[in-house]
Amino acid sequence: PTAYFAPICEEGGYKVNVTSITNGGHYLSEFADPNDTYGAKVKTALTKNKYDIVIIQEQSGCAIKDPARFYGGVRDLAAMIKANGAELYLYSTWGYKAGYSKLSSCGGTTAAMEMKLRAAYTAIAEEVGAKVVYAGVAMLDIYKNTSINVYASDLFHPSASGSLLVAYTFYATLFGEDPRALTYTAGLNASNVAKLRKA
Fold first, then answer.
1. Angle, in degrees to the nearest 10, between helices 190-198 and 160-175
2. What DSSP letter does each residue of 17-80 carry, written as one string?
3. What is the pLDDT of residues 65-105, one digit of tens each?
4. pLDDT on residue 28
5. What is the pTM for the complete model shown?
6. Are 172 and 178 in contact (CB under 8 A)?
7. What DSSP designation does 87 have?
8. pLDDT tens-digit series, residues 8-19
9. Cα dihedral 27, 31, 33, 36 in deg (nearest 10)
C-alpha cells in the first residue's frame, strides 16, 4: 500500500512524505519497547522528527488472540505519539482468506475475523482518542461482492489489487476525500480499480 499511496495523494492534490518502520510479525508492544531493535527506531523517529500523522498496525491476529497485548501496545505507542504532537490512526486489517490454516483460531470465517478485528480496533481507538482506517471493511466488501482477488497467494497478505484498495482507503480516511473521481490505477484493470475506489 505504501508504494501506491503517494501517487494517489498527488493526483488528489496532496503532497505527502511517507516513512515507515516495519518488520513482519512484530507486535505493537515490541515497537513500543525502546530495548527492541525496531522499538528503538520508533523512539528515535518520534524523538528526532515531527509528524503530522502516525499510523500503527498490529500483527494480524494479535488483536483477537491476545487483546491485552494489543491494547497495551496501542496505549504505549499512543502516549509516545501524543508527545510527538502527531495525530494517531489505527490501521484495522482484514480477515484471512478462506483456506488459510490460522483462520480457525481467529474467528473461523473471513467475515467473522474482520468483524472481531474491527471491534478491537474501534474499542481501543475510542479509549486513546485515535481514528481508524477500516481497510478490512473495504477488503471484505470486495472479497464478498466481486471476483477481484485482493489476497496474495499466501491467503493473508494483500495482492496488488488489495494493496491499491488499502491505499485508496487510507486516502479517503486521512483526507476525507471521495476517491471515485481519481484515475490512478497502478497499471491494474481500470474497471476493477473503479470498484476498489467505490469500496
1. 40
2. -------TT--HHHHT-TTSHHHHHHHHHHHH---SEEEE---TTHHHH-HHHHHHHHHHHHHH
3. 999 999 999 999 999 999 999 999 999 999 999 999 999 99
4. 98
5. 0.95
6. yes
7. E
8. 999 999 999 999
9. 90
What is the rounded distance in angstroms from the CA atom of residue 6 to the CA atom of residue 8?
5
What radius of gyration do the chain's Cα atoms show?
A: 17
Per-residue cell: 99: 483456506
In degrees and rounded to multiples of 5, residue 159 shows phi and psi of: -75, -175
State how far the Cα of 116 lies from the Cα of 147, in Å rounded to an integer.
24
User: Which three cell numbers, joined as nine digits, stand for 105?
Assistant: 483460531
**Integer Cα distance of 168 and 180 in angstroms:** 9
Write the CB contacts of 37 (distance below 8 Å, at least 6 apart in sequence). none
C-alpha cell at 132: 481508524
Question: Residue 61 has which C-alpha cell?
Answer: 491476529
Residues sharing a CB contact under 8 Å with residue 170, sequence separation 6 or more, in sequence order: 1, 5, 55, 91, 133, 135
Q: Which three cell numbers stand for residue 125?
A: 481507538
